[in-house]
Amino acid sequence: MPAQHPLHQRYPFLPDLLLLLVAMVWGSSYGLAKQALLFYPVLGLLALRFGLTFILLLPAQRALADAAVRRATLQAALPLGLGLLAIFLCETYGVAHTSAANAAFLISLCLVLTPFAEWLLLGQIPSCDALLAAAVSLFGAWLLSGAAQLQLNAGDGLMLLAAVLRAAVTCLTRRLTADKPVATLALTGLQSLVICLSCLLLASMQGGLPPLPTALAFWGNTLYLVLFCTLFAFFAMNYALRHSSATRVALLTGSEPVFGAAFAVLWLGESLSVANWLGGGLMVAASMWAVRPRRRLPLARA
């Protein structure tokens, strides 16, 4: 009977494909989150989003019956959950107080920060290709955002902080999950529980939350955020970070503003200039360059 190889060995392109899909759904999340926030406050939206995610992932907690899996998963759940809580608070409050173009530019700074965070936290010196691709992606994001029109406000500051936190949490996830028997879906559920309970606690300290809205638009946007932008995206990120480098993950998900721009044009009816499209093209090209197949040298030449 032939030996069974892990999924990522049989399909080595799978982590990269999952990350590009993550970038696609995350790109669409900005507009949907802004619409949902018209009906409900930030803490309530986050608590509902991640509470539903945890409920949907309750069956995955059966994986924690194994002692080794339970120990590794629980050790990663709390710090990564709190890290993601900080990211989503900054992003959601930031999106509510800034333009989509500024948000796309500032969150893309994690492309530049991740190689250095990986160097600082994991001791992995970034390659020249990674640094070059990060620089090109940042320039592309600058063009995509409208170049010289960028003006910073409080919302922009929160998006900048979210970019810094993204870089750090990406590396922390790799450190806590790589080469360890972590149950990916169970970890995603526990992270969601940490975020939900934390948001409810913060909301109770501010006087509680209003009743849930009944508008279909709110629930449609919320379910999309739960199923695709949270459930699928968290699973894909945790899976990819166990089988890839943090810099590679950041570069692939760095095409997020491109998909965000496409969503704004096709769904929201916004228009983009030639410079915007050029910036988006540069970001996609940089991501493809970073993950291109490398030709291996013969052993004698190596």
UniProtKB/TrEMBL annotation:
List, alphabetically, the GO terms of the cellular component aspect: plasma membrane
Which residues are listed as membrane-spanning?
12-32, 38-60, 72-94, 100-122, 154-173, 185-204, 216-237, 249-268, 274-291
> Which InterPro entries does this chain map to?
Diverse_Substrate_Transporter, EamA_dom, EmrE-like
The record's keywords, sorted A to Z, are: Cell membrane, Membrane, Transmembrane, Transmembrane helix
Chief localization class? membrane
A Pfam family of this chain: EamA
Subcellular location, in the record's words? Cell membrane
Coiled coil start-end: none
How is this protein situated with respect to the membrane? Multi-pass membrane protein
What region holds the EamA domain?
Answer: 16-145, 155-289
Q: Does the keyword Cell membrane apply?
A: yes
PANTHER family membership: EAMA DOMAIN-CONTAINING PROTEIN, OS03G0707200 PROTEIN-RELATED
Spell out the protein name for this chain. Answer: Permease of the drug/metabolite transporter superfamily
